[in-house]
Amino acid sequence: MSAGNSAREAILGRVRSALVQTERVPVSSIPRDYRTERPAADLVGLFCERVADYRATVERVEPGGLPAAIVAAARAAGARRVLAPTGVPQQWYDALSSEFGQVDDGSDIDTAGLERIDAVITTAVVGIAETGTIVLDHGPGQGRRAATLVPDVHICVVGESQVADDVPTALRRLDPTRPMTFISGPSATSDIELNRVEGVHGPRTLHVLVTPG
């Protein structure tokens, strides 16, 4: 046997031996006492800071002030036609209707119709403090995916209890069978000269309202 073959057999023999030893170790005996979370002193404050880093507007609002804050955000963005998906609180509908008249829920609007919507108002399922990311699983109050990607303005309400410290913690809160959209700031891209352009692949403006609860 040549020296090359001898070395090869020696290496493969060690691999086989290691695999046999691994098979004998029950999975339940592997210690799993490592930390699974990295809590921050001010988790919500970190979330707001990271969201703002992406050039989104962030406000902390008391629950009673949400309807007025939503209307003010839509008005500041110059919205004239707004969409609030089925499942958002009735108080939001009422406040938006008083300001803008008809409020669409998006259920019977096609993509061409969504292009005529100026702003969409939604809830979220999770916020991630470490990355400043908002996650929608398009359940009640969040609308279908197109409704949050086509309009130029997205106003999103996130409850403080929905903020997770990092991505692994957030993923444990999510249902993997749901369609999910991860949002980190307004839609943005850069050309070959690194000129930033916003609004190409989604909303140009993201306004996040963070509220207790």
From TrEMBL:
Pfam families: LUD_dom (PF02589). Coiled coil: none annotated. Residues 114-210 form the LUD domain. InterPro entries: FTHF_cligase-like_sf (IPR024185), LUD_dom (IPR003741), NagB/RpiA_transferase-like (IPR037171). PANTHER family: LACTATE UTILIZATION PROTEIN C. This is Lactate utilization protein C. It comes from Saccharopolyspora elongata. The lineage of its organism: Bacteria, Bacillati, Actinomycetota, Actinomycetes, Pseudonocardiales.
